[in-house]
């Protein structure tokens, strides 16, 4: 890294705070502006502080982590409910399918926001680049 870097480029970005802000759907930089402009579409810039967010590259990571969490939460509950109450097959299919869909829809935007916050805090995928200044 060049010694000519701007002081703002060298400042510490707290990872935990950025991940928490992102998981709440807020800008990882300021915590005020909305991170998403629709369900999973990340805004190009923060409406509050102007931080560029288009650099994010969450890709399939949030989906994989969501599947991992939902399946690891659902499987023991499925087994325990079957052993305890012996519900019919259709009851289990409907309840656990609905539960998996709802849990996935609740977790996915939070996990994606956390991924974006982590990328911002660690200066990954262009988040650490110096801002372009016009001469």
Q: Give the total of domains.
A: 1
Which structural class do the helices and strands define?
mainly alpha
Strand content: under 5%
The helix tally amounts to 4
Mean pLDDT: 90
Label the overall shape. elongated
Ends distance: 22 Å
Biggest sheet, in brief?
A: none
Write the H/E string, N to C.
Answer: HHHH
Rg from Cα: 20 Å
Q: How helical, in percent, are the residues?
A: 40-55%
Low-confidence stretches: 1-8
Number of strands: 0
Summarize the structure in words.
- The chain is mostly helical and 135 residues long.
- The chain has one domain.
- 53% of the residues lie in helices and 0% in strands.
- The longest helix has 33 residues, at 89-121.
- The model is unreliable at 1-8 (pLDDT under 50).
Please describe the structure with a list of short key phrases separated by commas or semicolons.
transmembrane, mainly alpha, metal-binding
Write the layout of secondary structure elements.
Layout: H1 7-10, H2 15-23, H3 61-85, H4 89-121
Helix pairs in contact: 2-4, 3-4
Short synopsis of the structure:
Keywords: Membrane, Metal-binding, Transmembrane, Transmembrane helix, Zinc, Zinc-finger. By secondary structure, this protein is mainly α.
């Amino acid at each position: 890294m060049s010694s000519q870097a701007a002081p703002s480029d060298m400042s510490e970005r707290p990872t935990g705070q950025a991940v928490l802000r992102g998981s709440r759907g807020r800008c990882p930089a300021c915590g005020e502006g909305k991170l998403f402009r629709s369900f999973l579409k990340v805004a190009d810039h923060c409406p509050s502080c102007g931080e560029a967010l288009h650099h994010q590259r969450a890709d399939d990571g949030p989906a994989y982590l969501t599947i991992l969490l939902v399946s690891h939460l659902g499987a023991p509950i499925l087994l325990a409910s079957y052993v305890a109450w012996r519900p019919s097959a259709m009851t289990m299919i409907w309840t656990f399918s609905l539960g998996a869909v709802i849990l996935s829809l609740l977790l996915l935007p939070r996990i994606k926001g956390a991924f974006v916050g982590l990328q911002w805090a660690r200066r990954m995928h262009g988040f650490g680049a110096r801002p372009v200044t016009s001469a």
